[in-house]
Structures are given as C-alpha cells and as structure tokens.
Amino acid sequence: MEQRVSLITLGVRDMARAVAFYEALGWQREDSPEGIVVFDLIGQSLGLYPLEKLAEDMGVPVERLGTGAATLACNMRKRDEVAEVIAAARGAGGEVLREAGEVFWGGVVGYFADPEGHVWEVAWNPFSPLSARGEFRWGGY
Amino acid sequence: MEQRVSLITLGVRDMARAVAFYEALGWQREDSPEGIVVFDLIGQSLGLYPLEKLAEDMGVPVERLGTGAATLACNMRKRDEVAEVIAAARGAGGEVLREAGEVFWGGVVGYFADPEGHVWEVAWNPFSPLSARGEFRWGGY
C-alpha cells in the first residue's frame, strides 16, 4: 500500500450544520456529487458524508464509529494565526478544546472540535515550514 | 483557515503494534522525534502517537476519543489492487470490515480497520485518476 491519503471522509450526523461550520471558516466547497460535500485540499480531498451512510458503506453498526482519536492538523504560516483560527472556530460553532498556547518544543498549538466532534489541531511550527505550495514538511525537533 | 491538512495523527494504545502494522503494509517510517512515529505522505505526514498523550495534549479525557467516524482513503491505480491491499491488511493484523467489491458508481471499494480501530477505505475510482505524483483528483460522477 502506497504511503498516500487520497481522501479524508468525516462522517457527520447533521450535514447542513457541518457544511456551514467549514464554510464559516472560509472553506470553499467543490461541485460535489449528490449526498456528499467535498472540499479540495492540496492534492487530496476532504468529504463530509452522513455518518449513517458511512457506517452502512463499511458494514458496521453506526454506534461503533467515534471521533477524536484521529486528528487533522492545519499548520499556520505565522505564529499569531493559531489564535486567530481558534477564535474563528469558536465563532463558527466549534468547541475549543485547548486555547492557542506555546508548547515545550517551541511552537504554538491549539485544538478545536467541529460540531460533530472531529478534532483539529492548529499549529505553528518554526522547525517545519510550509512549502510555497502550502505543503507541510516535517522538520523534526 | 486555509484548506489544508498538514499532519494526520492517529492516537494509538499500543505503539509497537500500530507501527508494526503499517510497516507490514510496506510503509517506511521517517526519522521521527521521540515518542511519535512519522510516515511521510505526499506533502503531509501521518503520525502515530500514544492515545493517552493525545488526550492530554487536547485536554480531554481519553474516554472521549473514538475511531472510525473519520476515515482515510487510499486510492489505487489499478482495479485489482483494492483486493490486494485488503488481503495485505488482513495479513498484517487488520480487521477487514468490507471485502473489495464493486460499488454502484462504477468503482471498487473495500474497508479495513487497523489494530487500533482507525478505518481505511481502499478504492479504485475510474473517474478520479491519480496524477503522476500519486495525488488524487476528485472527478465526481
């Protein structure tokens, strides 16, 4: 299996609420197939899809599916942007789990959960710059 | 917030078992900081990190964190590769949730959970080819 993630799917109970949340953060949706809402990332896609249908596709009971143990991180270009995004997430109806603050390794980190409980890490890492294309390059410590 | 996922973190209870699983699928780990194991994706990274520490970082009880409602998809270049990856996941100790099979929109899909319950979709989509770099281009239906 190649080391690649083509598509990230977030299963959601309330599609309209979830879409509104990401749009309130400034995201632009793609022209999406019926029943799924797709946001273009860089070289991949993020889809919002009804949780019940996702469970059905997998062939597992919906009660099995939980959130938060897999997190998605968005790295910022500037230190102060972490607090700005955390504030934006709160304003859009997200739950702030951890306010933006310095961490031991020298960066700034905050966490929020979207209205469905999917958890995002917002980070500024001076040791792992973003490329011109907006891609993350892991820099280690 | 830019439309970008820099880093995907999977919280795991048993680091050694989780690392062994992804290595058994053929993944190569990066030179990683202590306490986290990083795999380079294309323009982003996937990290394995102890679930307890992830919960601590977020500031939430570990019991809150669940898996499966967010899935990661790896798109294949050839139709038959879906079944091959599903078989490899089973051989590596994953749980096959759905065997590779045709779906209504004309592609082939299978699902497996890694030993920690994180769910992967393995797909071949004739309408959304991969670019030369291995990136996914959403093609719609």
How would you describe this structure to a colleague?
With 141 residues, chain A is an alpha/beta fold. Chain A folds into 2 domains: 66 residues, 2,3-Dihydroxybiphenyl 1,2-Dioxygenase, domain 1 (Roll); 75 residues, 2,3-Dihydroxybiphenyl 1,2-Dioxygenase, domain 1, CATH 3.10.180.10. Helix content of chain A is 21%, strand content 30%. Chain A is built from 3 helices and 7 strands, in the order βαββαβαβββ. In chain A, the strands form 2 sheets. Chain A has a 4-stranded mixed beta sheet. A 3-stranded mixed beta sheet of chain A has the order 1-3-2. In chain A, a hairpin with a 4-residue loop joins strand 2 and strand 3. Chains A and B meet through strand 1, strand 2, helix 2, strand 4 and helix 3 of A and strand 1, strand 2, helix 2, strand 4 and helix 3 of B. Strand 1 of chain A pairs antiparallel with strand 4 of chain B, so a sheet runs across the interface.
Secondary structure layout plus pairing:
2 copies of one chain form a homodimer.
Chain A (H helix, E strand, L loop, with lengths): L6 E6 L2 H10 L12 E4 L4 E6 H8 L11 E6 L5 H11 L3 E8 L5 E6 L5 E6 L17
